[in-house]
UniProtKB/TrEMBL annotation:
One of its GO terms (biological process) is cytochrome c biosynthetic process. It comes from Alteromonas confluentis. This is Heme exporter protein B. It is a multi-pass membrane protein. It comes from the Bacteria.
Length: 222
């Protein structure tokens, strides 16, 4: 079982790196948003420091939506998803491997670039540490919750707009707590409560999302 799941993970990772244009597109979008936003509001260091956490998180959410539609799209289109379902592998485990692959190829580059983004937006060291913690806890939540909506819309043509309409309201609480943690760090205030709430949201998603994703995929194929 573990070798088969490892095979699913390696296959998805290889396919992701073959589609270099789709792989790079969300990252380029994120960089453009973070780069162009200061030109619209002004280059003042205090202004950039004030809006920086929100800009990075909004860009992360929007860029994740760009790449999320392809999570199950190709497998659904060529029948691979149906074959995986008939293979006897637990569909929730297959979905978990796909979500893990999506998180790695979408958000690890963001974490690697985060020092540059923090420097560009004039974030302090304390703010950067809080930002990285929120990204480490919050971005897996984006992938897990987003995959449920992707499973529900995978069989629809032009489901990207519907996907955005479903997910953006759901991601608002995460955005609020994540930016609140970084703002508290900027004021030298404790932000353990915000981190604990994001961590609790992630644990709940890890427990419930795989089964919900599997159910949504079964509904889409019926």
């Amino acid at each position: 079982m573990s070798s088969l799941m490892g095979g699913v993970f390696k296959r998805d990772l290889a396919l992701a790196f073959r589609q270099k244009a789709e792989l790079v597109q969300p990252l380029m979008f994120l960089l453009m948003v973070v780069t162009l936003f200061p030109l619209g509001v002004g280059p003042g260091p205090d202004t950039l420091q004030l809006i920086g956490p929100g800009v990075i998180w909004i860009a992360a959410i929007l860029s994740s939506l760009m790449g999320m539609e392809r999570l199950f799209r190709d497998d659904f289109a060529d029948g691979s998803l149906e074959q995986l379902q008939l293979s006897g592998l637990p569909l929730y485990a297959v979905a978990t491997m796909k979500v893990l692959c999506h998180w790695l190829v979408t958000f690890i580059p963001l974490l690697i670039l985060s020092p540059l983004l923090a420097m560009f937006l004039n974030l302090t060291v304390d703010m950067y540490i809080a930002l990285v913690i929120t990204l480490l806890l919050g971005t897996p939540l984006l992938s897990l919750v987003g995959a449920i909506a992707v499973g529900l819309t995978v069989g629809l043509q032009r489901g990207g707009v519907l996907l955005a309409l479903l997910l953006i309201p759901v991601f608002i609480p995460l955005l609020i707590f994540a930016t609140s943690a970084v703002d508290a760090a900027a004021l030298q205030l404790p932000y353990r409560a915000q981190i604990a709430i994001i961590g609790a949201m992630l644990l709940i998603a890890m427990a419930l999302a795989p089964a919900a994703i599997a159910y949504s995929l079964k509904v889409s194929q019926n």
